[in-house]
Input
Amino acid sequence: MQKGLKSMGDDSVKYQIPEEIKKQIPEYFYESLWGELVSVFGSSVIEITGYTPDEKEESFEPIYGLAYCISTCGWNAAVWATCRKLDLMSVYEYYDGLRWVESDLFDGEIEEELYKHIPGRKSPNPYFLYLLHNRPVKFEAEEDG
Output
């Protein structure tokens, strides 16, 4: 069985990024990938495009433009650029060596992490705020004088 694939016991398999690859991916990778995705696809990638029911919470979960970018050539270019800029080419080489099914599943796992790192969710990044609102963001130092 190929590395990263696990038998589920019912003739199906589930892919997980191997731990040795996960350990190479720092937290800032995801914010950097968001930036590269914005440079490839534009700010629509971080905008809410609709809502889907969340049956567990009886509410609605936002659907971001990101959902339409996964597993495309643009996605691949953004992953490559992020890995190159962060000196993580070993991660990209692993990713690039996957068969298409496994690479799609890899993309899905990265997508899940990206949703945990949505720009502005924890601490607003001025670059993303500018893109979202299409206007400059004033820093605290600028507001004081």
